[in-house]
Amino acid sequence: MVKCRLVQDTKFFEVTLDGCEVKTSYGRIGQTTPQTDFNKYPSAAEAREAYSSLVASKEKKGFTKDEEEKKPAKRAATKEAEPAKKKSKVPDPVFKDVIFVTSDNLSKSAAAIEKLIEDNGGSVGTVLSKMTSYFLMSDDDFKSAAYATKLSKAKLNKTPVLHEDFLFDSVKNGKLQDEDDYDLHTMHAPPKKKAKKEESDDDDPADNSRGAHTIFCLFPKLRRHLF
Questions:
Q1: What is the pTM of this model?
Q2: Which domains can be identified in the chain, with CATH numbers?
Q3: What tens digit of pLDDT does each residue of 26-37 get?
């Protein structure tokens, strides 16, 4: 809860911020029953904005902060600042600034996947774009013809297409894993064919024939004897 008391001559204006509610009290200084208003806003952010706007508006009209209010506020600020020095740095979320797009048939429901990503600082997109960090898929979805268009778009945008285990392992280990270990194009690449062993010169029938012809030319009597 935050409170600010402003005064001008014999008048006062007090505004209090409490979550999504803003309360204002105003009247003559010393008045036992000042006028009071309550306003509730859809969000705490909107309430803070309204609170700041009210204070700024009264200051423009010549109201100043009550000196008695400033002193305890200063002491309170000092007390709050002291423990802040002792706080250790909180590590960044695993998926900070990471945008995922997922296929439809992962091992967990879409709601569970989205919650896991958002709980760890990431976000889930619905359309593949150049802003997409990773396209997560299951093995079956990757092999399905239904995803051919999306895979082509991911290739065009140079978006890594990774197995869903990349998500689970990154959360488990508290850091982004090496995407090369989960690349589905690599995982489903056909095995390389072994190079056919070349026949040795000794096994070449043509070479054997030429060798025999040379022998018979040098020794014609041997040909007559054999044939």
A1: 0.48
A2: 2-86 (2.20.140.10), 99-187 (3.40.50.10190)
A3: 888 877 788 888
